[in-house]
Amino acid sequence: MPPHTAPPSDTAPALHTAPLRTAKAASPAAPSPQPGPAGTVAAELIAVLVAVTDGEPRVLTVQDGAALPSGPFVSGHRSLQAGLRAWVEQQTHHPVGYVEQLYTFADHGRSGQDPALRAISISYLGLTREARGANETGVGWQGWYRYFPWEDRRDPDLVTTDALVDALHGWANAASDAALRYDRQRRIAINFAATPHPWNEELVLQRYETLWEAGLVPESGGAVAPGRQMAHDHRRILATGIARLRGKIKYRPVVFEVMPPWFSLGQLQRAVEALAGRRLHKQNFRRLIEQQALVEETGGVATETGGRPAKLYRFRRAVIVERAMAGTKLPLAR
Question: What pairs with residue 315 in β-bridges?
Fold first, then answer.
């Protein structure tokens, strides 16, 4: 798997909740880095902006779902993060809340851009609540399982990875030597949960990279793997964002950034399940929330379909001050 460059220290995760002013002149598409002399290096800022709506994880896209909001880092930007926020606002008219840096990608030949231009993609993960944009052409929210259908394992009866695994075994067996065949088979077993390995919901990027290397996704010339293709290397960057968020919800209360101000515990569980792509044990989940004092009652109730009125809660923001880390492993349903 290609290496990733660690985020610079001056872009540590931070909590930002104030909406940005609407740009006076908006453009749904950012200019691409311009070709230059051989050896030219350009930096592109890319946003993975995530929301959970009606129990489904969604990502903000441009170009009718084919790309993530992005734009070049230019001298007028005060910082990398300020540049990213400006591009997201300009292209989508959507405010950016919580944001943190993901990775810096600098692999040659992966983006499909001018070979004379070395593009460095600096990606960020943002969490928000879905809001209607300014009706910009091509801008919209897409379910992220549209791009990675094999990652949704909330309903085991609908999980269909057999064809993918069969194609991957064919790729592994075609390796030129025994050591390479063994390495490929080992990666397939770990990434796609062959016995005795359990499914690891955080291996999103490793699964996509294996499929890419095997030539099974459109971005590497294949057509076996399902899922919507994205421009340049944006599906790989989206996979990185999903993996980061799936790991982070286990030890930081970031899920509340995608929740409405008031919510039921059922809504909260469905949001966590949507992000993780796994079903959770109801009683264990509620016990975990109560033990860590993550929420407090509002005094209100809501009627959820098919059940009695449910108490409404809100996130107890004092948690952030009281301890640096709040969360634990997901209480998976067995």
Answer: 295
In degrees, rounded to 5, the angle at the alpha carbon of residue 277 between the alpha carbons of residues 271 and 282 is: 55
Buried-state track 270-300, b at ≥16 Cβ within 10 A, e below 16: bbbbbbbbbbbeeeebbebbeeeebbeeeee
Euclidean distance between CA atoms 189 and 313, whole angstroms: 41
Kindly report the three-state secondary structure assignment for every residue of 278-330: CCECHHHHHHHHHHCCCEEEEEEEEECCCCCEEEEEEECCHHHHHCCCCCCCC
Give mean pLDDT, residues 279-286: 95
Query: Among 141-145, 244-248, 289-293, which stretch is predicted with the lowest mean pLDDT?
Result: 289-293
Instruction: For domain 9-146, give the fold.
Output: Nucleoside Triphosphate Pyrophosphohydrolase (3.90.79)
60 has a pLDDT exceeding 90? yes
Cα 228 versus chain centre, distance: 15
| pLDDT tens digits, one per residue of 126-140 | 999 998 655 678 999
The structural domains of the chain, with segments of one domain joined by +, span: 9-146, 149-229, 252-322
Q: What CATH number is given for 252-322 in this structure?
A: 1.10.10.10
β partners of residue 120: 43
Cβ atoms of 41 and 120 within 8 Å: the answer is yes
